[in-house]
């Protein structure tokens, strides 16, 4: 039995398929006879490698997603890099070595720099250099790519390292589990395995040498255990475990299509997903999201040199709306400032950016940016059920000004004859205590409230949520926070409207009984939390939850509320 | 020649994807762009140099630009680096 890093959950039993390493060893020591010839071979191999990677990238775009495919742009850049060319060529010339040796030495040299790094995440980026290196060496050897070609059905893939190119080539239907010698929890292999829901154990020393093709293997990706050629007793135990795991997954899976209703049928709420791009809708839907409770539009604006134009935004919003079909998508207007800035937007440095020029305040100062976003949302509103939400509203005039901008955008579209949903619903984030306290002054101008619990807690308790030293002071269950939440919900209900929540608090099952008891209508969270929250809600008794909320609101300390909540989830 | 102090604020640092984007961005300027980090002189226009530089989350370094468009280069490159996302 070998233990490694539990990188992706699940249990698999199957036959090993060991990915071979390219054989280039003899060329590592041989001296080159014609140095110009070696430089030519190197250039040819680099060309071949780049065109191979282009193909792999296109396959990854089709089968995985843009984020996985982007890694291949990095590989191409590495191959095109002058530093690499210079280092490898000067080795050929100075040592009279073959191109293979120069590539190996140069790339190993880069990899060894990663070993010295302290940052665990960056350390693993050596994997990108190993991938490029092994591809280059194979191109030099004249062998054709794709070492996954001979893979049998239902196999367990074993490799020293699984490169992004390997995973793109792999027929994912055939792979039951993955075991490698290299890589950690944030390595490419781990991320890919988790997104495909294939069990994976990484960091098993020498496994690519000790396991042979066809060996029987048990892989426990939950515990990080690999057993090569197990005994009968072990096989029985793990077969049992495997079935139990599948059973528990099935129970969760059945939850997907069931409503989020308390077990007595007394209270039905809506569970929605938080997304950063249209691509995130798919995983939300897979876990039964009934809508998008928060579309963070700032990702459209970040990691780039210029503003996205109206057309680009329109297409992005439309894509999300179309993905969600008849389900509502709450699009939050740009929330930048605070901990997020934009290179092309001059924001003066501030002493307290979280208390500064942020979100709606910034948008109202830059009417052209705000207007183009509102126009894009309105144009997209014909393709689904869009709702608009303004972040960081503290005062009534801000809401009025934002709505005024919306009406202007509507009038423009009208005059241009561009269609949009004239009855689009509007709401505000409640994340500033001031807005929560006087929610009754806002309610007539909105269709809904959505509580941004992260900021509401931070602003109510004056605790920086990004400051690790303050983590003990960050208490979502502080009585002041709970009273604000309760007040907002009550105000919306009295006006015949509704309140959702889109902060971390909504996605933690331990808070669900209390929030249900307080009357929250919609919970929006990351896709991976949807089923556990739903399970908790479905086990609740509504009368008990209401009683729990009444008692909690009487308490004076967060710790007392925590104690009270125990036993309810 | 212009210099500016930069702190990397995203959680995963300057790894493959953001580094690739940055190199493309940096190559749009005529100026020579260097990152002076832990006694290392990193060529900001070379992906190999940038990745092996090991610039992680929280790293602080000096960005240096020299050339005809150095003013624009240093301002824009600094903004790019300071607003990296994961």
Kindly describe this structure.
- The complex is a heterodimer of chains A (569) and B (86).
- Chain A is α/β, with parallel strands linked by helices.
- Chain A has three domains: 1-20 and 147-234, Glucose Oxidase, domain 1 (3-Layer(bba) Sandwich); 23-145, PtsI, HPr-binding domain (Enzyme I, Chain A, domain 2, Orthogonal Bundle), CATH 1.10.274.10; 260-565, Alpha-Beta Barrel (TIM Barrel).
- Chain A is 49% helix and 14% strand.
- In chain A, the strands form two sheets. Chain A has an eight-stranded mixed β-sheet. Chain A has an eight-stranded parallel barrel with strand order 10-11-12-13-14-15-16-17.
- Chain A is globular and about 85 Å long.
- With 86 residues, chain B is α+β, with helices and mostly antiparallel strands.
- Chain B has a single domain (2-82), classed as Histidine-containing Protein, Chain: A.
- Helices cover 35% and strands 27% of the residues of chain B.
- Chain B starts with a strand and ends with a helix.
- The mean pLDDT of chain B is 88.
- The interface between A and B is medium-sized, with 33 and 32 residues.
